């Protein structure tokens, strides 16, 4: 099956559907939905859409459910406990797609040239012991949340490029990884800049490389939903994407393009990110977390294909699963199709 871009796919599905794109009037009518999220700056598209009423304008009554890792979010989507979410592609997500439980319907966070992105970090204990570059990490421990997580993918791609072997250590939660890095229990990790930079500045670890150098144009996170919502709740799904996309536009204008008030955007994001800090202390980390979120929720399908191939090569997912089982290409534009 050939993947078409969104316009082609909608045209094939008939004029009624083709007329109901992201810019069209919302079809939802005060639908109550749950949206899964992490308390990261990179999830700000949803936060802005909620706070500025874009979800409400789209006819959606949104409630957030917060998670600490990607794979539990995928399970929550599959079970129907959560309707929509933004998260990284993981082995768990792909396996659920193969079972017909979930569909990727769009793209969110991306590594983009010229915009600061995720970092590879070496713990201070390892650094002081002489491990000062990624090439020095042969045989060392790399922290991941779970086997088959995006951290696993980023670590493996870097190791392959450097010609080294890593021992991947699953620690389940980002907080547990931070603690293990500080105490020197693991040697290396990769994470978004708003976590990497302040702790590097404090000396807890050392930034030694950029993920974009090893995984260019990486589609870090995707927008996904249940297969049922993708197939049977087209109006609600389009309404969600419409609201989300407006939130992303506002976020980009303020935090990346400099065409809107950044201070006001930081105030909004602070309601969800670094809420345990006063605004003045939270602001630098919120700014450091700024990365590109795709306009119109466009999906870099070339990156998703590469990720799927890696999961298959590692034996983390079935070799027979196809990109069509994972992605519904009819909602947004496909980059690199």
Automatic annotation (TrEMBL):
Record-given protein name: SsuA/THI5-like domain-containing protein
GO biological process terms held by the UniProt record: alkanesulfonate transmembrane transport
Task: Give residue ranges for domain SsuA/THI5-like.
Answer: 41-252
- Point out the signal peptide segment: 1-23
Q: Which InterPro entries match?
A: SsuA/THI5, TAT_signal
Q: Name one GO cellular component term.
A: periplasmic space
**Highest taxon in the source lineage:** Bacteria
Instruction: Give the similarity note.
Output: Belongs to the bacterial solute-binding protein SsuA/TauA family.
Report the subcellular localization.
Periplasm
UniProt KW keywords: Signal
